[in-house]
Amino acid sequence: MLFNFTIGNFRSFSDKKTLSMELAPITDYPKNIVKKSKYKFLSTAVVYGANSSGKSNLLEGISVMKNIIEGNFEKGSTALLRYEPFSLNIDTENQPTFFEIVFLAENTKYRYGFENDQTAIKSEWLFEIKGKTEKALFLRENDGIEVMADYKEGEDLEIKTRDNALFLSVVDQFNGKIAAGIMNWFRNFNIISGINHNQYREFTLKEFDNPKSNKILTDYFIQLDLGFEAVKIEKEEVNIDENISKNTNILVKTKLNTIHKVFDNSKKFVRNIEFDALKQESSGTNKMIDLSGAIFYALEFGEILVIDELDAKLHPLLTLSIIKLFQNPKLNKNGAQLIFATHDTNILSRADLRRDQIYFVEKDNYGASDLYSLVEYDEVKLGNDLEEDYMRGRYGAIPYFNTNLKNTSSKSSETTKKNGKEDKN
User: For the segment 91-101, what is each residue's pLDDT rounded down to a tens digit?
Assistant: First the structure.
């Protein structure tokens, strides 16, 4: 369960910005609230913004933090860290990148984060949160690591931590129970692309090997009315080197076929025919197939799924169907969360989103991205035409076209501020 994620000095984000899945004090759409342990939080969050505004940078920041954590310990002492600071300001281009996340792991709430440049972890911290009280477990600043008395598993591991290694990863490698639980939480945090989605097909095909998952996925595909009657998994054994014994050199290839009806001229059903989905179905259908395994896996195990460009290749109603899976209390029983970026404004009018679920990213005149939520606009009420207001530029985060070559201003000068955000009427 994710409470919030904060990023700073990464790509287009100069200042620290936070995407929160915690509930604002509003009563909109209570079905969009899910529970885990004693906590309540949002099931979905959507991020809007113009092209190059920073939406993908925000989600990529989550991915980078996860990748640094998961792959950190195995690197050597001279290995370089992923480091992409905000480079359009001389004060930030050589400063460390900031990542912090507040989450629930094994029914305990933690705040964990670090700062890094290309060669070293500059700071790192882990807090346990109980109610409104935070208790530090360890604090790291430059070359020093302070391990608190209550964090026994971290004792005497300070000297084993390289400059470019996370202390959390080191403690995990030495069988620290808390560290292991946190590392496992990050492993179950899935960030996937809505454009380069073919790499997830193998996961979906593996899900079809499970009878329970097979039925759920098949029923979902049929419900979407994608034009086929059923699906079939086909496996083929291939000898990858004919010069070696087939018994020791077999590769099993798996593909998904869709079942279609064949009719005669009088529209009478004659037989079924199988299509190779990858070759004969549309790109949108293939995307639904590719992502469906990860979607239903997240729902089953209460995991977090982050998808950039969710709407790419999909009809708006297909995109909407994915969102509603996570917002259906009967399907989302284990507290799964979906965070996604999109240009599909149809969602604003049809997905029954709470105001605290809707985020916008907009760049200022100096190339820095701002992140803010619709809930920050006091005048927005339940029932407002959010799609129309967004397209009119009321909440910012849309492209502004220069229709008059003599006027180089990219935005209307007739803007006012609401809670620090531009309100364009």
Answer: 999 999 999 99
